[in-house]
Design goal:
Blueprint: H1 3-20, E1 42-49, E2 52-59, E3 72-78, E4 85-92, E5 106-115, E6 120-128, E7 138-144, E8 152-157, H2 170-173, H3 187-194, H4 197-201, E9 212-216, E10 222-228, E11 233-239, E12 246-253, E13 260-267, E14 270-276, E15 287-291, E16 298-302, H5 309-314, E17 319-325, E18 333-339, E19 349-354, E20 356-358, E21 361-363
Antiparallel strand pairs: 1-2, 2-3, 3-4, 5-6, 6-7, 7-8, 9-10, 10-11, 11-12, 13-14, 14-15, 15-16, 17-18, 18-19, 20-21
This protein binds beta-D-galactopyranose.
């Protein structure tokens, strides 16, 4: 090879290497993995194992059908949070008509936690059954010995059949399930919702569990947060020691306040939650809340967005999915949101922003690009 050819070849290599090497976050831009593909892990959840971050998320495909699970749950790994290695599909859907995990079902917001005692990686996700829209409102469980999978599907459930939340007063338990009585929306309807009309409706068969997240506390106890009661009320549920079931200890959180997309983190002994309202794939004003215990009571802290009116109304055109604690940095937390593109979901973007604290409240401000030195100030 001539010298000039070698130089051109090396320059192209350097250019390519430079292109995939990220040194900052660019919220809302195409974000390529090590294969040069836009990262495909929507409604993501993050797990830290030693010095490595794992990003699990909904693997979408092109076109509106891409909103359903055609492939499964994808997983990526990274040591620096900027550059992500494609680790393939962690949980696969398949063609077995007898399995609830059949292609065309809905798998959303997968979250993985590691159980120190059983040495298993435990994945929970929002699961809707094929051809049944969003009516099943189940949470699914899968498990693996390896962080990147393959995960084996175990079951999907409507949790807490026949069990009342610990903070549900006896006086409400015998009220009727008189759903047809009220005009929707109306103050009477709202009151019935706050008083748990949907909770009572689902008492026998088990509760609804849609948008969800998991949180493992410092004592190793894990909690499953999910939108329940027709998305009107969050439920926070303690998981069993092996994280593979519900203990039956659960609470209703912010009744009737319509929270979806919960994302939890802990700072200085307090628990913080980001969430959204209910507008499907369209963005809405973000919300935040604080508690002294995952099971609550939770106190609303209002919209966490600091910015223009439009940014406040749309949470920077995003919906929360997770908060990542940065390895080795104190009080360094990253908000992770999805900018959904329902007509071509594979093109959905990721909005990562540093969390700032002001007057003991977590707040977010837009940045076109930023890096982890933000937290050194
Ligand atoms: C959103 C929810 C998403 C997805 C979507 C479907 O409200 O947060 O995870 O379920 O609705 O319309």
């Amino acid at each position: 090879m001539k010298k000039i050819t070698v130089i051109i070849f090396l320059s192209i290599c350097c250019l390519l290497a430079f292109q995939v090497k990220y040194r900052d976050f660019q919220p809302g831009q195409v974000w390529e993995d090590d294969l040069g593909l836009h990262i495909n892990a929507h409604g993501g959840g993050f797990l830290i194992q030693e010095d490595t971050y794992y990003w699990f998320g909904e693997h979408k495909v092109e076109g509106a059908e891409g909103n359903k699970a055609q492939v499964g749950v994808g997983v990526y790994s990274s040591k620096d949070l900027f550059n992500w290695k494609n680790e393939g599909i962690a949980l696969e859907v398949h063609d077995d008509p007898n399995s609830l995990l059949i292609k065309g079902c809905v798998i959303e917001r997968p979250k993985v936690i590691y159980n120190e005692k059983t040495k298993k990686f435990v994945m929970w996700f929002h699961h809707e059954l094929k051809d049944r829209g969003y009516e099943a409102a189940m949470t699914g469980l899968a498990v693996s010995d390896n962080v990147t999978g393959p995960y084996s599907y175990i079951k999907s459930v409507n949790p807490h059949a026949g069990i009342w939340p610990t903070n549900y007063p006896d006086s409400l338990k015998s009220l009727p399930v008189d759903l047809d009585k009220f005009e929707r929306p109306s103050p009477e309807w709202k009151e019935a919702v706050v008083n748990g009309v949907f909770l009572r409706r689902d008492f026998e068969k088990g509760q609804m569990a849609r948008d969800m997240t998991l949180f493992v506390d410092d004592d190793g106890k894990a909690y499953h947060f999910h939108s329940s009661e027709n998305n009107q009320t969050l439920h926070v549920a303690e998981l069993t020691e092996d994280y593979m079931d519900f203990t039956g200890n659960y609470t209703r959180v912010l009744p009737g306040q319509q929270n979806e997309a919960p994302a939890i983190f802990k700072k200085d002994g307090k628990y913080y939650m980001f969430s959204s309202g209910l507008t499907g794939w369209n963005p809405n004003p973000g919300k935040s809340a604080v508690a002294d215990h995952p099971l609550g009571p939770w106190t609303p802290l209002g919209n966490m967005v600091r910015g223009t009116e439009d940014e406040m109304k749309t949470t920077f055109w995003s919906q929360s999915t997770a908060v990542i604690p940065v390895i080795g940095k104190k009080d360094a937390f990253i908000y992770v949101g999805d900018r959904w593109v329902p007509e071509n979901p594979i093109d959905g973007r990721y909005i990562w922003l540093p969390i700032e604290f002001e007057n003991k409240r977590p707040v977010l401000r837009w940045r076109d690009s930023w890096d982890l030195s933000f937290f050194d100030n």
